[in-house]
## 1
Amino acid sequence: MTFKYGIDHLDLDIVNGIADGKIKAELCQEALDQINKSRQNVDKMASSDKPVYGINTGFGPLCDTQISPEETHLLQKNLLITHAVGVGEPIAKALSKLMLITKVHALSQGFSGIRLEVVERMLTFIDLDLIPVVPEQGSVGASGDLAPLSHLFLPLIGEGEFWGQGDKRVPAAQVLAENALQPLELHAKEGLALINGTQFILSHAITALTKMRYLLDLADLTGAMSIEGMQGSESPFREELHKTRAFKGNLEVAARMRRFFKDSQNMADHEECDRVQDPYSLRCIPQVHGASRNAYYHLQELAEIEMNSVTDNPIVISDEEAISGGSFHGQPLAMVLDYASIAAAELGNISDRRCYLLLEGLHGLPRLLTTSGGLNSGMMIPQYATAALVTENKSLCFPPSADSVPTSMGQEDHVSMGSISGRKLNQILGNLEKILAIELMYGAQAIEFRRPNTCSDLIEENFKLIRSRVAKLEEDRLLKPDIDAMIELVKSQAFTVSLDKVEK
């Protein structure tokens, strides 16, 4: 397929496909016409005596200062230079690329008044993999992601840096010269169109959604392996039960758990046992994992709306009118990113509880998952790591969107802090990968004590994958390499967790 910027509907899979080079994206004639018409409207307003914010006036608290046509170009250049004040380490190159892609789509809808030449130069950057360096800190997420977007577009005017080979940072002027590209001169409104917007927040949301989608599925697998190890009950996952409280996420998780246990000899061996109920961390997986899945869907819905929105200011609607509003404000994403942070943290929270359960020596399992306890500590200490990571995630769950610090001499007196929300969610997900990796190691060890019983085909497939990298623990050994190997399997998304793929 070929995606048409400014025309087609962008979603999670398409934006990732464009970024990965698997989906071609271009400007069609309809988009070209939209861009050019909007530019004509700006040119007319810029040459008039009527003050129009962002076109022939200053910015922020200087909105009542009119700028002459002769000064317009310098104003736009100054805008990028003065707002490029980001600090901290740079964001990943992949995030900067997502920012470029989503910005092109927004600008191509014909409401931003930018010249076609500028949009085409951004596409050249994407096509040649010339990705600007963007610092991770410094955005308050309200007048758009001003600082990150300024850094993203400094190379248009020959300033800033690009990523080079081996994560080397190269001056933009040098890279432009090497690719026979001349720095651009920005015209009326163009600087503002470039740096107003939520693409920094949005790109963090896209990255988080992509990772969280897999981790939600993986969490179900880890829970299923732990239940197999504990020889828990299947009854909490029955369809009849969940139809009586039909939250979307709950229903999906319960169905997935039933598939994970399908034809399990080990689970069938437990059917006549005298245990009445399992602890919540086993029994309530559909409710807890399902709630996190519901939060994921909420974030996905809002992020896809944002992917297809125009978020700069003002919005050009005719040759006489540009509406100055607040579509750059990051609150719609900031709040749901904070919600998703809690959801991701809870997946880790309940996973840690299952790890602890597996160590207690209940229901036929040896304490610490070793038959040589005393001389050997077995699997005791990795749970310390999960406990630490869980607590770290809890500390990251404070919602930045609940805070606001006025900026711009009070003109921007309520801000979203959505950039921080996005960054924190991705931190939490990074910790969650490590927690689930350890639970998978525990689950595999516990299943060893249920042999010769076999589990479902899915569980056995993933068990074999674990054993290809991590051997059964017989006596104490250095566990750090085992944990690192498990984390790598999780990060590379090596586990079979998608039931769609299995059934096909």
## 2
Amino acid sequence: MRLADLEQYNPITIQCHDNPDADALGSAYGLYCYFRDRGKQVRMIYSGFSRIQKANLRMMCDKLKLPIEYVEREGQPPFPGLLITVDCQYGAGNVTRFEAESVAVIDHHRIEIENMGMSRIQSDLGSCCTLVWIMLQEESYPVNEDVVLGTALYYGLYTDTNQLSEMNNPQDKDMWETLNTNRRLLTMFRNSNLSLQELMIAGIAMIRYSYNDEYRFAVIHSQPCDPNILGLISDFLLQVDEIDVCLVYNEVGDGYKISVRSCIREVNANELAAYLTEGIGSGGGHAEKAGGYISQRLYGEKFNALHADAYFNNRMNEYFTEFQIIDAREYRIDLTGLKRYRKRQDLMGYVRVDAIEGVGKSAILRTQEGDVTLNVAEGTYLVLEDDGDIIQTSSSQFEPYYDLLDEKFDWKAVFSYEPTIKDHVRNTTFHLQDYAKCCRPNANLQVYVKQLDKGVKLFPLWDEDGYMLGVSGDYLAAYCDNPQNIFIIRHKQLGENYEEVSETLAV
């Protein structure tokens, strides 16, 4: 989706999430400028339980004269024309859902809502401001000539990348280097991150922390404040050497707002946020930073009189105890009594990613399940399973176990959404249908399986930083010819994709 595709609509409403931060404000303003200069009736809005309170954000809106409007959650008629949610996804828990004639989504977080229709989501970018900058450049909009716009975009990137220290995408750096900004105003914003009242709230919160030394996590209950202050407290906590994971929460409106941080590979903050809010709210974000909201009504129905402090501490402890951490490089599976299975010789697809001309070493695989980062090395393969899963593997893990066929793979028979590989450095999209060929599992693909009685986070041989998640009832599988090569088979997949070939192994 390009901005030019949206010019058919008028009027246009640009909606930030309910607690807009600098990234949401900056990216919304970029869109506002573009459509304003295209002669559209355009407005910037946000909603939620409270208006912007944080000192630096109020200053940003005032000094840059951002035309941001607060609108009530209730009683709003459907928005005519087009509603664009920016730095969030329409229908997600962190943005009020307003009815509209048409909806588009522009965001840099991982996909939370399926089948959004018109959307542009690039989760590999450090900020949504970067994405808006890219989209403005696609239309030859003179973004680098506007000091006010440049300052807004820069500050959005600055705040969302931990003061520019987490710019992992070259396009973040490109924007940072080229924007025309007001350095004096940026200094004012940076030096107004807290009011005296917010300093007091943060200070009181941090001296009232609870700490779990076994799992190295901290939980803090803050006084009511701008939700962005929760993130500031979380960021500070993670600088403590004894803390690997932290949760900060407070009451807001008719519920609880949470901020989650993690600095270890064993815990994805977005996954933890979803776990804490499961069934009573919603949560998500990035691997290191996430947030969420819990409905007080749903919480009361499920947990009655349980104090929130007790809930969060108990739930955090359950999260750590629910999952066993397994690193395939160190783990030795006990094969005693395990049954052997063979992968059914059903037709599957494969793509050798490193053979696609133009794909860089880091790209994004976009599937119906969301975006996945690809670390493209020599011999990188994607296996297109017949149940719609896509597995990244290496030549040593693929070629001995599959017979490669020369016929094209029909992705439509398996996938409702066409998978693509996106190289955002080169701004190129590769359609897997152009490269996918067929393969069949051969007789070498035999595994021993062990049913899990608890959750597992498995770091396979081919990925040191990302884990495969298995829940109770799923299976831990080990290749018969290399028992250290282990992976997860989902419960339903064993019967659908594998068949037993022998009695138990005698050891």
## 3
Amino acid sequence: MIKKTFLILLIPFISISQNIDTFFLNKGEVYFSFEYKNRIQLNNISDIVSIDHKTNAEIAYAYANRKEFENFLKLGVNYTIIEEKPLVFSSKSKNNWDYYPSYQEYVSMMYEFETLYPEICKTHNLGTLPSGREILITQISNKVGQKENEPSFLYTSSMHGNELAGYVLSLRLIDYLLNNYANNQRITDLIDNIDIWINPLANPDGAYAGGNQDVWSATRYNANWVDLNRNYPDPEDGPHPDGNPYQAETIIFLGLADTVNFTMAANMHGGVEVCNYPWDTWSNITADNNWWEFISREYADSCQANSGSGYFNYLNDGITNGYDWYEVDGGRQDYMNYFRNCRELTLELSDDKIPNPNDLPYLWDANFPSFLNFMEQSLFGLRGIITDSITGNPIEAKVEVLGHDIDSSHVYSMLPIGNYHRPIAQGNYNFTYSKNGYYSKTINATILNNDIFVQDIQLVPYNTTEISEIKKENKENNSYDLLGRPAKSKGYKISKKNKKLIIE
């Protein structure tokens, strides 16, 4: 088990009437623990503050900005302030990856990847924040910048700016993949068959809140003191569950998810060690709960097998349903699963939010095999290409599992290829393919774990006289930018209907 490195100062409970200015003299967030009586009370409090984690002893840990904390105080709940002191560690060697780069070093590394490996790597600036810091993402593919019949996969890290294990591990993963292409067969196969996207730092303003030179004064919230993992549209609680406008960081990732049809994703956090799978916002069990448990157990078991005793054994021996742990509204995991039909998992990688650099190689050894296994899962299940039976042109169609799919667990084929990818647990299923203007088609298939079942489908249009219009539609949709965005994209819209959000 990695030892805690945070220096903490405990301050006893104070009354509402006491001035709380002292808590916010140096930064706009406060970290504290509190006692709760039952799950209902905890869920109610989670609507007010940002729950970090909880123990089984009815003690929860949370962050709050000033407004959130003032609302929390009105509840009269016993709490203890935990003052996170800035950490100071000696600089280590980038060559050994026991090192947190400065912000400028990070930017240089990201663009250097593209410079050194231009045929398989492209670094995108998804957007520049008001601070001037960039949200950068590296795309790795054997035909980078080209659309192929392959799943797109996403790793992101550190949307909580003080949870930084995944920051360095993501950089190291990029480096490892690029260095081992054409030299390691498994790595070559992954890059040849998956469109890989890796964003090591989703909240640079939080990570470098103390300045661009180091991360030792990092904050959870962004520069506006908003928790980015409470700032997404929510399946149950609507477009703005936290009451804040969408932050620049959120808008950037909404745009990315809107333009790249990700099959699978993982979002790296820290503070405990566990795989957290959907849902976070409600007690509903996903249609693919067996699959989620299978891939989460694979991840956790591999971490345990490649580490010392005591690592990655929190909660159910390293895995948990999100809501069973504690409720999160406005989280990115549920957004990606519900609104983007992407299987996203939350990875809590370290008990320490900012691990001692000495521990980073240990964390890499423990997680690296799991990183590869998880990416590889995007290849498995049912996949294929859907086309018009008359023209042969690819079409965008819905793929759902009869008697199985609920809560947006279906997927879609996507232009310009018409390819679809449906991860699912082992079993026999009836898959239905449908699109307005076409006769639906149902096929039966037996899926095996860690195996690929390819099923190409042709759909027959109702009225063949409309073929010219179909051709016109396909032609208009065949122009894409570097991120895969259609040239005539309708953009991102959300509306509320029957207390559920739908994408227009």
## 4
Amino acid sequence: MIKVEEVEQIRRAYFLDEMSIREIARTQHHSRRVIRRAIESAEAGSYQLEHGRPAPVLGPWKAQIDALWIESQGMPRKQRYTARKIYQALRETGYHGSEITVSRYVAEKRRASLVKGVYLPLEFDPGQDAQVDWGAAVVELGGERRVVQLFIMRLNYSHARFVMAFPFQKQEAFFEGHIQAFRFFGAVPRRITYDNLKTAVLRILQGHNREEQAAFVAFRSHYLFESRYCTPGQGHEKGGVESDVGFVQRNFMVPLRKVNSFQELNAALQAACRADLQRQLRGSPETVAERLAGERAQMLELPRTDYKACRQHSAVVNPYGLVLLDTNRYSVPGHVGEAVRLRAYVFELEILAGEEVIARHARCFRQEQDIIDPLHYLQALVQRPGAFEHAVPMRRWRAEWPLVYETLLAELRRRLPDGKGLREFLAILKLHEDYAPAAMTKAIQMALELGAVHLDGVQLCLRQLDSDQGEPVPLDLSDRAHLAGIGAQPVNLRQYDALLSGG
């Protein structure tokens, strides 16, 4: 019969010293079953029967079942071992008993894990602790209903909360959520508690130890906060933010949000977070904003620069001038067959050759799409003008551009035959690298009206539109050496005086 003092020693070792059941069994010389019962209840009376009825068939296999069960608790709920999966695993190692025997033993362990404990009210010091969690909500985005992922951070002292919507829970979104939350709070909490998220945790080790993702360690090092992880299956350890998930879903996302973009949705969510700062704290004369103002002084300062919240990897430009990211293909100007580097932010993709950014694209959240910038193919078309009519980048662009572009192309072809008109048109299109589409449309319309249907004419119209006074601006002749002397002659005032006197 186990003594009540021994029960106390077991419980202190488990709850205060955070020793594992295996360690307690080795040091205090009790069976693991006795130790588990002591953890469930402090009463000694229930420990009189130290050894249950023998289970000759299952007995030798209980250690393997226990190991699979413990391993399962650190996995996502839908990936945990069921009784059938455990039975199948035992069969592969020589077990010949019935499945029902295994099921009964697993059911017993499941019931034991569901024993309700008493949750203690917690109190936190200013600036010390925050919690992070993900939720989900349905929105109408661009006229289409879709599920978005909600990143939520909660400061445990002030109860200030930050919410941001993302198309996914990938690492770049995880990092960006932190960065924007830190900006919103104006400082960095000293410690943040998480579930065992794959974006942060590579592997769950003994006790509270974790092997963390290298990228997350680098991110955390940039902001200097500490991380803490919940015990697998013990979500109540960060119950504050878990309750915030429900609050946000009920109060920030109802009625159904109808927006045109993630930028619009996140602007609305941040406004809701700012309004929530005026909430009166329960049992306190302070508002959330007032308590946050006091808490901020105890938090870590924001670093001078933000961490680059992106996923990086290399890619090779294929023969069509495209690189692959998450099943989608993005265009690159030239560099066919060369290795380039991708920086995948949540809403933007950067493509680099060495340290030079050679292309930028908005991230596509669909699958198997070609995201093409037609400007990336202009040089290739100059070399192969015969492909103009059928090249996919140009066909897509022509379907969208204003009618004046077609008018300009027809006029250039009429004035400059033998493909020269098309080459001049392609040179004009290249001006899109420096000017907005609206300015280009106005300049082309102006050039057509003036009859200045050529590259120089469109450039002059663009400069005219850029002029603040709307007055004529000098033509740039830097690339025409033979005209460099025009307009550079010194003024002869004697000739002007003679002209006025009739001389």
